[in-house]
Amino acid sequence: MNQLDAMRTFMRVAELGSFAAVANQLGTVRSVVTRQVAALEEHLGVKLMVRSTRSLTLTSAGAAYLDKCRAILDMVDAAEAELMEERATPRGKLRVSLPLSYGLKRLAPLMLAFSQLYPEIQLAMDFTDRRINLIEEGVDLSVRVTGRLEPGDIVRKLGTSQLLALASPGYLALRGRPQHPSELMRHACIGYAPHGSGRPWVFMVDGRLESFALSFRLQANNGDVLAEAAAQGMGITIQPDFIAADYLAAGRLETLLDAFAPPPLGVYAVLPSNRYMPHAVRLLIEFLSERLGAGEG
Length: 297
Hints:
single chain; five-stranded mixed sheet
């Protein structure tokens, strides 16, 4: 038994809560994973996990051993990586999850440039707005554009994106330009609904954030669709600058309520854990941070 390999397998099983899920990630059969953990338990002379048909639970000894495994494997990974980084070209597999609109408009050119710079890194990009479980899906890094991080998120900030209230010149000529967020109740509003229900719009009023619950004539979970709807004169929408830019440049949309602009969204690299960061992941974060933080976000 290779003890380090067994410790890694045990750690994965503990994190995913499933022998089958780990076997799927490793491209092997469930029995191989089960035998490896059983061999580790026999070597240690203690039960690490309690199995049942529906669940897998760490024993108290298993929970304590898991913490030790994480610390030991972090040290091993860091030691090996430092030696390899000194003499080797960056290489290996790197799987990244990218938001759809921001990914296509801002990140895709940077990701291609990164791949050109580090051709030995095998880069796999998944463009989706779905919130994923990085550990379960084997993703090394996810980029997220948000104003609200979830508890427990492990992130590195890459840049910011400003939210803009937008409408077409034709709509404003017909319905008038609102001078205060409270006037939006008298307008047709088009709302972003990531989970099927629109959120209140938030503006900075008298130095503090104020929410406005509005009735939306149109909702979607894609900002490009909503920006196009606004450009066709269907109403007012709020969109990040990376979606609005082309419409503003073409004169199809105008900004409004600029004096009440909400705080910018953050652009974050989300990591699966706060343990050792692989060299390729660190290189990508540094690469994106330099460019997005310098105004490309």
